[in-house]
UniProtKB/TrEMBL annotation:
GO molecular function, one term: protein dimerization activity
Any one GO cellular component localisation term in the record: membrane
CDD domains, alphabetized: HATPase_UhpB-NarQ-NarX-like
Official protein name in the record: histidine kinase
Keyword ATP-binding included in the entry's annotation: yes
Tagged with keyword Iron: no
DUF7134 domain mapped to chain residues: 3-161
Any Pfam family: HisKA_3
SUPFAM superfamilies associated with the record: ATPase domain of HSP90 chaperone/DNA topoisomerase II/histidine kinase
Length: 435
């Protein structure tokens, strides 16, 4: 029971009270009945009992109805002209809303019996007052039909309220389930990244062990090579510290899920594009920049993000995709844009507020980018889907800093500058031959 409902019910009770007083003062509709009792203090008190309990009809529907019905019958028996029992009508509607769907048949039967009893009491009262036969027939036909209509209207209202409540509960349950699924997807992705960090750290430690052993053995015989081994140890350790700074603070416990590794070499992105092109996806690509040595976490994240974006293009697109990859001095930027198949599952690709709820793939890609201090943006509509990721790999001089906002895929590379990926591979082959 909300404050708004209480306010509405209090207003309805006041309106019914005013209408009842006006009807009693006018001695009924039309011409006053001969001998009808005018409005006095007793009439005002009874009119209050016949209307004001409506203020609590949502809390105590049957109690309010019984009080109003008894007060209305007393008004009629005392000779007041109450041609329209407004209070009883509204109370009957409230009883129907509260009890028409009650699973306890006894309570529903009591509510219906109370309404029937009021009609019978009215008929007996009018008959005792000497109402004509024609008027009695009208009373016995019109009033029951009116109250039956009120009961049906209340029952329809109850059903509508139950449907609305069920839909609201279903929406809340779906939202909780979606949140839980997003949390699980993020946890699985973090676990996968943790396993990749474990592999990277293990590789670095093995290199350090080998170089340290070589430095120890060559310390006396070949100091120059010993110093080179020590320098390699320093470089590997520095790189590993950078990896740990990026990832370990944001990771959770390992639950043993999917720890499969992916290639860490930047050239693996070319192979990935070739795999999808061989599978039938028409890719128009622009790969630019100098491909230096990337930290394993950045190379892995770039591979995973491009893989997920191309998978979405195959699953939900029309068979084409525009890809732009830029190897910058401070970050790797990936942009993928593809048209969306009409009537497909575009809503699953998800940019929040653009094409629906984000799917698990989007959650995982964004998680990877954020853990590296980068960004991932997705946008789209019923016609196209765009993804843009920025993965920084340059180490800041003073602590960790967030990457600048990433450019959307539509802005990263004009479509006219993109070329089919097959041509890029041919150009790369010709460069290798020339070199």
């Amino acid at each position: 029971m909300t404050r708004r409902n209480l306010t509405i019910d209090a207003g309805v009770a006041g309106l019914v009270f005013g209408a009842t007083l006006a009807l009693l003062a006018a001695r009924g509709f039309g011409s006053p009945y001969p001998g009808a009792r005018g409005l006095d203090v007793t009439g005002v008190v009874l009119a209050a009992f016949a209307s004001l309990p409506l203020a609590v009809r949502r809390i105590r529907a049957l109690t309010a109805y019984l009080v109003i019905a008894v007060a209305t019958l007393v008004l009629l028996w005392l000779g007041y002209s109450l041609d329209g029992p407004f209070g009883v009508a509204v109370a009957t509607y409230g009883v129907s809303v509260a009890y028409s769907g009650d699973r306890r048949r006894a309570r529903r039967a009591v509510a219906m019996l109370a309404i029937v009893g009021f009609l019978v009491a009215v008929a007996v009262g009018y008959a005792a007052a000497g109402l004509s036969g024609r008027a009695m027939v009208t009373l016995l036909l019109v009033w029951p039909a009116f109250f039956v209509g009120l009961w049906i209207a209340g029952d329809r209202t109850r059903l509508r309220q139950e449907r609305i409540a069920a839909l609201a509960e279903r929406a809340r349950r779906a939202d909780r389930e979606a949140q839980r699924e997003r949390r699980l997807a993020a946890a699985r992705e973090r676990t996968r990244i943790a396993r990749e960090l474990h592999d990277s750290a293990g590789h670095a430690i093995n290199v350090i062990l080998v170089q340290a052993g070589a430095a120890r053995l060559l310390h006396d015989r070949d100091p120059e090579r010993s110093r080179a081994a020590i320098g390699a140890i320093e470089q590997v350790a520095r790189n590993m510290i950078g990896e740990i700074d990026r990832l370990v603070g944001a990771l959770r416990e390992d639950d043993g899920t999917d720890g499969s590794s992916v290639p860490a070499d930047p050239s693996a992105l070319d192979e990935l594009l070739g795999q999808y092109e061989a599978a039938g996806l028409q890719i128009t690509a622009d790969v630019s920049g100098t491909r230096g040595v990337l930290p394993p976490s950045v190379a892995w994240a770039a591979y995973r993000i491009l893989q997920e974006a191309l998978t979405n293009a195959v699953r939900h697109g029309t068979g084409t995709a525009d890809v732009a990859i830029e190897f910058g001095p401070e970050a790797v930027e990936i942009a993928v844009a593809n048209p969306v198949r009409r009537g497909g599952d575009a809503d699953r690709l998800g940019a929040e507020g653009a094409v629906g709820r984000a799917g698990h793939g989007i959650v995982g890609m964004r998680e990877r980018a954020l853990l590296l201090g980068g960004t991932l943006d997705v946008a789209g509509d019923r016609r196209s889907f765009r993804l843009a990721a920025r993965l920084p790999h340059a180490r800041p001089a003073e602590g960790f800093r967030s990457a600048a906002p990433v450019r959307l895929a539509a802005e990263l590379r004009p479509v006219g500058e993109l070329r089919p990926f097959g041509e890029l591979r041919d150009d790369a082959g010709r460069r290798e031959v020339a070199s």
